[in-house]
Amino acid sequence: MASEWTERHAERSLKRIVPRLRKNLKTEISGAPEEWNQFEIRLHREFHGLFQILVELYGGHYDFFYHLEALLAAAAESWMERSKDLKALDAAREARPDWFHTQEMVGGVLYVDLFSDNLAGLSDHIDYFKELGLTYLHLMPIFAVPHGNSDGGYAVSDYRAVNPQIGTMEQLAEVATRLRREGISLVLDFVFNHTSDEHAWARAAVAGDPEYQEYYHIFPDRTLPEQYEQHLRDIFPTIRKGSFTWHEGMRKWVWTTFNSFQWDLNYANPAVFRAMVEEMLFLANTGVEVLRLDAVAFIWKRLGTDCENLPEAHKIIRAFNSVARLAAPSLLFKSEAIVHPDEVIRYIDARECRLSYNPMLMALLWEALATRRCGLLELAMHNRSRIPDDCAWVNYLRCHDDIGWTFDDSDARSLGIDPTAHRRFLNEFYTGQFPGSFARGLPFQFNPANGDLRISGTLASLAGLEQAVQAEDPVLIDMAVRRIILLRSIVMSIGGIPLIYLGEEWGLLNDYSFASDETKAGDSRWVHRLKTRWAEMASWKTPQTLERRIYDEIARLIRLRKQLKALYNGGMEVISTQNPHLLGYVRQKNGQRLLVINNFSEHPQTMGENRLRLYGLGYRFIDHITGKERSAREPLQVDPYQFLWLENQAS
Ligand code: GLC
Ligand code: GLC
Q1: Which DSSP symbol is given to 202?
Q2: Would you give the distance in Å from CA 496 to the centre of its chain?
Q3: What average pLDDT does the chain have?
Q4: Which of 78, 107, 180, 450 is 20 to 30 A removed from 554 (C-alpha atoms)?
């Protein structure tokens, strides 16, 4: 039996490799025998699982054992080089593995260059993060990239060098340490599906080195690309048709799922896996606490499939995870899989990614805001959002990317909604073309072949603030602000880590100036990638400004969230409010029970008193949002876009 075989051979391999590791690291080990001991304990715990996966993926390669040994040597060295500080963090996380579940967790994400010009400037704003209550900070890609268009940093030319305009590796390590001291975990991207065409490996491939050509998916002619393309989806259809780019220098075709300068790595080659493990370990030792696994769904290719979410992609992530457990035990992975909700969930597992974006909740919140109805959201949250207790969703409204209408078609049909027509409606609504729409979004990546379209725009512009401000209509402005706060409150209360795309907290509107920059004009996502205008922000701080109102409400929600122990991750039950405009759920944890009710319509709504008693388990409630009492002796009145966080008051 395979498992018996692997057991035996894992044991034998370990016996062969461990003495060689000890020999290689003799000096280091004699200086820190206890640390080495910890490594060996973890190695014995992890190795069988890791070995099994690697045999499945790479066992057929003649040089399997060479790569296996080199991999473990890299992990061992990396651990021995890991700083005392980070080892202390490893121990602290081990003692409190639930650290990321607490209601104290609040995330933020920003582009360093747009926020503070560079890493040196970032350090000056740590007080701002603290004031807001952030405990998690994701810096968008900051590594060396090609000049001009670099897909916002997602075309990495060197994983060990910060883009000189942004700073240095030393500054990055310093920022990581300073943030950690302030209780903020640093999150960085691991852009591991592809490198830029200027990465040393790509250059070597272009120079004709066959070893490096095998790092990528490179084809002499169109034969295989055409066979693959029969099943592939075009991710950036306005860039090119198909997933391959002709390289004039090599006179060959290169697999490029995203932009033509982003070359997909070939994970079927064990050398690639090993090389990327080394880049991951390097990042881990700079002090990153969470790695966002960029474009996870695409990392494995097989002819005849759509090359998304293949079983081997999961194995690769498990193998990365296993190596991280050895060499940087506190490192967590966050999955960026923007695919069907049921596929998103498959990456969420202690052995893969503890954290994951929640694109379904994000998209369906916008769907509910447009339709004023919660049916699809309710159904999806009920059926498709359960994840293991030791993992957490990262809930967001906007990020640097577009909104794609990810929901299950059969869910829609079961509610009498035609999925295709509905996506068309949502696109018309959020590009402001649907009559009566409040939204001002831009289309992203229209695909004329199938009509697919995604949406760009800031939270505030999509929620109606841009239109309302232009109309100078106080009623519309008020509605837009209420929508913003409603969505924000849901993300704060529904379970998991809320993530703020910084700028949102001030209700910033779309910035159309990207259209005059030729490296950005073709990519409408730049409309919501804004430069922080610190001088203006200072003037917003005076009361009475709109920005201030939005900021204060969001800051207050964050403070409130941190006080309510029911909002600890997990334990979310969607309830039936029997009112299509009201989304309700119960959060129960740590001896506290909250009933959350949200009105998605601009009209007052009611929920029957029997529902309130049934789910609230009582007669008298305090609404933590307004501080007012509510009684279950009468129907619950909910104002336009109002949300209530109700807790039973023992009477
Ligand atoms: C991820 C990023 C996106 C980028 C793509 C290619 O989806 O979020 O911004 O374009 O990967 O790296
Ligand atoms: C990446 C892209 C995003 C796209 C998604 C599709 O995340 O950045 O635009 O919707 O892939 O899977």
Answers
A1: H
A2: 12
A3: 96
A4: 180
Is 104 part of the annotated catalytic residue set?
no
* Bridge partners for 190 per DSSP: 293
DSSP per residue, 76-113: HHHHHHS-HHHHHHHHHHHH-TTGGGSTT--EEEE-HH
Ligand 2, atom 6, lies closest to the CA of 338
Residue 472 to residues 430, 467, 475, 478: CA-CA distances in angstroms?
A: 20, 9, 9, 11
| pLDDT confidence tier of residue 1, bands split at 50, 70 and 90 | very low
Q: Please, which pLDDT band fits residue 542 given cuts at 50, 70 and 90? A: confident
pTM of the model: 0.96
438's tokens? 């409040």
Does the active-site annotation cover 336? yes
* pLDDT confidence bin for 651, thresholds 50/70/90: low
**How far is residue 462's CA from residue 200's CA, in Å, rounded to a whole number?**
41
Above 80 in pLDDT, residue 543? no
CA nearest ligand 1 atom 10, residue: 151
Cβ(231)–Cβ(307) below 8 Å = yes
Residue 374 to residues 403, 424, 487: CA-CA distances in angstroms? Answer: 18, 18, 13
Report the separation in Å between the CA atom of 443 and the middle of ligand 2, taken as the mean of its atom positions: 14
Cβ-based neighbour number of residue 588 at 10 Å: 16
Q: How many CB atoms are closer than 10 A to CB 614?
A: 13
Give 210-269 as a DSSP string: HHHHTTB-EESSSHHHHHHHTTPPPSSTTT-SSSEEEETTTTEEEE-SSSTTEEEB-TTS
Helix 2-24 and helix 64-81, axial crossing angle in degrees, nearest 10: 50
CA of 294 to the centre of ligand 1 (A): 7
Mean pLDDT of 259-284: 98
CA–centroid distance, 456 to ligand 2, in Å, is 12
Instruction: Quote the DSSP letter at residue 353.
Output: B
What is the dihedral sign for C-alpha 160, 164, 166, 169? positive
Task: State the distance from the centre of ligand 1 to the C-alpha of 155, rounded, in angstroms.
Answer: 9
Given a cut of 90, is residue 535 above it in pLDDT? no
Report residues whose beta carbon is within 6 angstroms of any ligand 2 atom. Answer: 235, 295, 338-339, 401-402, 404, 454
d(CA 155, CA 151): 6
Instruction: Assess whether pLDDT exceeds 50 at residue 591.
Output: yes
Task: List C-alpha distances in Å: 244 to 219, 220, 254, 333, 440.
Answer: 9, 12, 5, 29, 33
Nearest CA owner, ligand 1 atom 12: 154
Phi then psi dihedrals of residue 386, to 5 deg: -75, 130
Candidates 197, 278, 294, 402; catalytic one: 294
Active-site residue, selected from the candidate residues 189, 336, 401, 402: 336
Q: What SS3 class is residue 309?
A: coil
Residues 6+ apart with CB under 8 A from 277: 71, 74, 75, 320, 323
Contact between 260 and 237 under an 8 Å Cβ cutoff? The reply is no
Distance 629 CA to ligand 1 centre (A): 46
Ligand having the closest approach to the CA of 294: 1
Structure letter (DSSP) for residue 443: E
Ligand nearest to the CA of 151: 1
- To test the pocket of ligand 1, the residue of 145, 258, 296 to mutate (highest count of ligand atoms within 8 Å of its CB) is 258
Interstrand relation of 332-335 and 355-357 (parallel, antiparallel or unpaired): parallel
**8 Å CB contact between 166 and 112:** yes
Sheet holding 572-575, edge to edge: 572-575, 582-589, 592-599, 643-648, 620-623, 629-631
Number of other CB atoms surrounding residue 619 within 10 Å: 15
